[in-house]
What does this fold into?
Amino acid sequence: PRTPHPPPPTLQRRVVEPVAPPTPVRSTDTDRAAWARGAMAGFQAALLTWVLIVVPTVASFTSTMASAVNDGVSWLDSTRQGTEFFLAAHGGTFAIGQGRDALGVTVTPLGITLLGLLLCRLLGRLAHTDGWWLLGFGTLGYAATTAILAYGLGTATAHASAPSAISGSVMVAACGMAWANGLRGLTTKESRLHHLPPWAKALPRAATTTAAALLGAATLCALIWAIAGAPRFAATFSDLSPDPVGAVALLGTCLAFAPNLVAWAVAYLSGVGFAFGDQHLTTPLHAELAPLPDFPLLALLPTTPPRPILALLIAVPVLIGGLIGWWLVRRSTHERHWWTMAALALSTSLLASAALTGFVALSSGSIGQGQLAHVGARAVPVGMMLLVEFGISAVAVAVIGRVAVSDRLWKVAHSDKPIAVKGRSIRWWTPKEEPPPRTVAAQE
It folds into this structure.
């Protein structure tokens, strides 16, 4: 007899749901050791920054101990001088010279400030602590260490400027720890910052990009100054004729003040310029040149009258503002009204100008009370000029770009339908909600 074939198996309908990637396990920092790890990170960052300054200072003193200039000076005095330099990097004052002839210097060595910021970020990452534990106790540990060094090893000049140095250390540590933290725990879905509108989320990124772009242009300008002034730098460095250890210390001092040169380049590109005393002023349009002190880094500053073509440098902030305005148009397709785009561009210009104003203000100061009572750029005029240059171009490009986008294009940008461009299907906008589960029907 003929054996019948068994019936084919019937397949049931099934639902295939997308599987979310596994969430990495991260410590909630609810244990009692979280605050200790944060405080220890701040303490180590401040102490390591101080050591990196004091060790070259003591080494330079040891190599010149037999000199007649160091009669009556001990290694503890050189340690105190290094501590003054550490406090100056946080807004304090350090003295040049001894006795009544000493000059108080309030110019902040931004290179040491940047070093402390990077160490806070590095040691904060190694602390394995997230959220407010690292931000709060890390800042507290850094500021407490600065206060101990100021009142324990500082001179009378350091004691007088200790409150401003401690305040500056709080700002440096808070920025470094927030950078190390990556704002984790502050921007989670449970926090209020997560529910901000899209324009509020795009504003900090746009302002940071604007300030970073001008800082990049200023760094390029400072490098051009360095290349043009390299022979003068070498001549000034050889005239001082230090010993090998002193040469390393002098070069380290130049590196400590190198970011100040970038801040002065920011003022130079804005059109306001910078001054070194009452008789020295440098701008792209006008220059009043005077002899400068014998310091190798100052030999890199422009020493010739500006050429008419240098006036085009003022257009650099204007160009950056226009590019940021167009970037806002491309990123803010959800904003339909032109006045909203104008407010967003103006707010971006305001935040970027405020950040650059603070950077320029930190790089300026005084050397004594004589002709060098003002060194650097005046922060408020620089900030106002940058606000005008950024604001005009950014607002103009943002408004024109938004008006140029028609209603039809705006609707297409917010639709789920793909658009065919050169044979490819693209989407201008991706919906935030997850797609529904796919249903796969079995075929017999």
Observations:
- The longest strand covers residues 14-16.
- The chain has 14 helices and ten strands.
